[in-house]
Design the sequence.
């Protein structure tokens, strides 16, 4: 029997049983070994009958004193009432209908029993207790998720048979020892049949580590597999002109980022870099520098944004910088007519446009470039392991730069961005005034409105963001809010923006807001993604507790982008202390990394990353908020790779590191 064998090769597993197993995704011996217990019954934590509290789950050690025949209580209800005792008292073990369950209980023998303690007039009893002979070799019994036709005992028996064939260790023993991980054979056998709770803890730690390690190595391997990129050369004159054209001095973080990026593009290996920078850190200027560099080398670039609004904005910003440098930029989104699209595509194909900005459709098959060498994706907060893999699969050996506005804790970024080199823009342009944040309850809304009025009177603008679009009873909706604002601010122009609007309509509203034709914009979180209105100084957020902290931080970053002092007002009707605590934390810091870390710990990885977007597999054991284990995993991975860059020294390991590890 081998690990890849069908489970029908186990004694006692026929076709029928195999069908039952198929329902829970178990087909092979390996699958069965990875069908981990969902819980354990620990028969060793023994109480005495006298000390056991009612309605709690306990284990007892009892002697069976009497096992009468079952009695028929009424039609269809039989009771087998087994009597048992320990030194401190007596107990009834009641089995209804399932008389077979008690067949192994023998009078005069001692057993561990486990169940919920109950009392009634006739005394202490347990319904359908689990039990175990005190002569059993293990006293912790695994509990498996069941499906119809599978019993705990049946699964245990099958796994006992299967466990003779365990996988060989695929990690070097001395390294496992160094980090105090147990071997894989022991981990797999202990996770099913532990001697004690310490065994379970050690087994879980090893299996959690393996899950993380496989993902990280799979990502790193894709990084090493990168083909040769298009090699470019130094262009000092063009880059100097770029800096002259810019209306501001680059921050030293931007300078460093640009030199890392152009360094990548001068290398043989294709660039695959993440540019991570808090809102307002100036990623666009860095993107512009990369495009300038590619253009100076005679190559085309593409920049993809997640939304139309953002594509338009990038187009404008980039044109302002790039056009004076003689770089022709175009914008291609779904909003363009078929004729316009055709024309733009022709000019991209001919090379007349050196840089193309657009939504993701830009990279669709029908867009042909003359000599595309750089693709920049403005992912904002979207983490797309899968999306990235897709982009890489397109096979074009172009350099890739991914911009992300959500700082994520380093430990997590190692797991999610293991395939990327990372540059962090950890500095905001000088002269930025920190945004002041207030978290208030609903009864202070009037005062908030009064404050907004003062700002509007001074010629500024305000955002008002709501969690819902329209008619949601629970949450404030943007549509309703626009009405409220119109009533409150009759002398000002109120706009409305939400995700149900068409692309053109959204763009138009955003344009009006930018060009000061709208004073207050009621909106949903669609404004979250990077839209720039320097004259806006107030970001008011209703039902702020409905948003994640990182998202609130993003929204807050929509203001404070100009010369004026800006404010963020978080309104919530939720009185819970946790909510207050969270919002207070956000008010106390503007450091995106700190906020991300806090958010991650509070909400757990799934929520933090936005469930399915991240594309990581579901871990059975690993908790990526456990920074100690993620750190150890990372060090372990680095040491393996330092010894053998393509893992060829570890053939067994290499075999199990497949693309499967990074696909959900
Ligand atoms: P983000 O990283 O959030 O995408 P942007 O690239 O949109 O940030 O830049 C935010 C604002 O800061 C823009 O108005 C941009 O012109 C400005 N900016 C960028 N870099 C600098 C700098 N070095 N000095 C001053 N202002 C800058
Ligand atoms: Mg941006």
Sequence:
């Amino acid at each position: 029997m081998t690990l890849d064998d069908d489970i029908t090769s186990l004694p006692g597993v026929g076709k029928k049983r195999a069908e039952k197993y198929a329902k829970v995704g178990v087909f092979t011996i390996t699958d069965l070994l990875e069908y981990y217990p969902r819980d354990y019954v620990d028969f060793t934590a023994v109480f005495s009958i006298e000390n056991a509290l009612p309605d709690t789950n306990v284990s007892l050690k009892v002697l069976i004193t009497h096992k009468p025949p079952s009695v028929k209580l009424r039609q269809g209800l039989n009771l087998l009432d087994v009597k048992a005792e320990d030194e401190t008292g007596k107990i009834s073990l009641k089995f209804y209908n399932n008389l077979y369950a008690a067949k192994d209980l023998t009078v005069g023998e001692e057993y561990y029993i486990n169940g919920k303690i109950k009392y009634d007039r006739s005394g202490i009893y347990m319904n359908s207790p689990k039990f175990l002979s005190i002569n059993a070799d293990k006293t912790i019994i695994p509990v498996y998720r069941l499906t119809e036709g599978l019993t705990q005992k049946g699964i245990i028996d099958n796994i006992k048979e299967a466990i003779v064939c365990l996988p060989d260790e695929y990690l070097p023993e001395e390294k496992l020892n160094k980090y105090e991980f147990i071997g894989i054979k022991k981990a797999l056998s202990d996770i099913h049949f532990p001697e004690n709770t310490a065994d379970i803890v050690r087994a879980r730690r090893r299996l959690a580590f393996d899950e993380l390690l496989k993902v990280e190595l799979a990502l790193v391997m894709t990084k090493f597999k990168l083909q040769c990129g298009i090699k470019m050369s130094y262009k000092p004159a063009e880059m100097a002109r770029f800096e002259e054209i810019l209306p501001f001095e680059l921050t030293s973080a931007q300078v460093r980022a640009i030199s890392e990026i152009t360094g990548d593009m001068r290398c043989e290996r294709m660039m695959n870099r993440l540019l991570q920078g808090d809102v307002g850190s100036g990623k666009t200027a860095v993107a512009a520098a990369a495009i300038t560099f590619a253009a100076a080398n005679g190559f085309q670039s593409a920049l993809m944004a997640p939304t139309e609004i953002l594509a338009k904005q990038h187009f404008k910003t980039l044109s302002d910088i790039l056009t004076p440098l003689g770089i022709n930029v175009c914008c291609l989104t779904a909003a363009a007519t078929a004729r316009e699209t055709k024309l733009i595509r022709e000019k991209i194909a001919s090379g007349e446009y050196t840089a193309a900005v657009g939504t993701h459709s830009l990279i669709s098959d029908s867009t042909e470039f003359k000599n595309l060498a750089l693709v920049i994706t403005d992912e904002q907060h979207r983490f797309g392991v899968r999306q990235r893999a897709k982009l890489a699969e397109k096979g074009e050996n172009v350099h890739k730069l991914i911009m992300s506005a959500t700082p994520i804790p380093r430990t997590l970024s190692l797991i999610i961005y293991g395939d990327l080199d990372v540059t962090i823009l950890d500095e905001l342009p000088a002269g930025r005034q920190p945004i002041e944040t207030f978290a208030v309850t609903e009864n202070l809304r009037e005062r908030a409105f009064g404050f907004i009025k003062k700002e509007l009177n001074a010629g500024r603008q305000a955002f008002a963001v709501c969690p819902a679009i329209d008619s949601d009873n629970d949450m404030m909706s943007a549509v309703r809010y626009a009405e409220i604002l119109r009533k409150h601010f009759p002398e000002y122009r109120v706009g409305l923006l939400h995700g149900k609007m068409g692309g053109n309509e959204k763009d138009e509203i955003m344009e009006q807001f930018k060009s000061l034709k709208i004073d207050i914009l009621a909106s949903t979180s669609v404004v979250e993604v990077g839209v720039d209105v320097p004259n806006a100084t107030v970001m008011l957020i209703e039902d702020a507790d409905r948003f994640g902290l990182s998202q609130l931080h993003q929204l807050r970053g929509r203001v404070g982008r100009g010369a004026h002092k800006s404010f963020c007002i978080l309104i919530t009707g939720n009185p819970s202390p946790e909510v207050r605590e969270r919002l207070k934390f956000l008010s106390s810091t503007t450091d995106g990394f700190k906020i991300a870390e806090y958010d991650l710990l509070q909400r757990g990885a799934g929520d933090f990353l936005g469930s399915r977007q991240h594309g990581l597999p579901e871990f059975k054991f690993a908790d990526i908020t456990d920074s100690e284990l993620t750190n150890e995993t990372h060090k372990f991975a680095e040491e393996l790779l330092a010894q053998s860059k393509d893992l060829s020294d570890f053939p067994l390991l290499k075999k199990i590191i497949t693309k499967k590890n990074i696909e959900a």
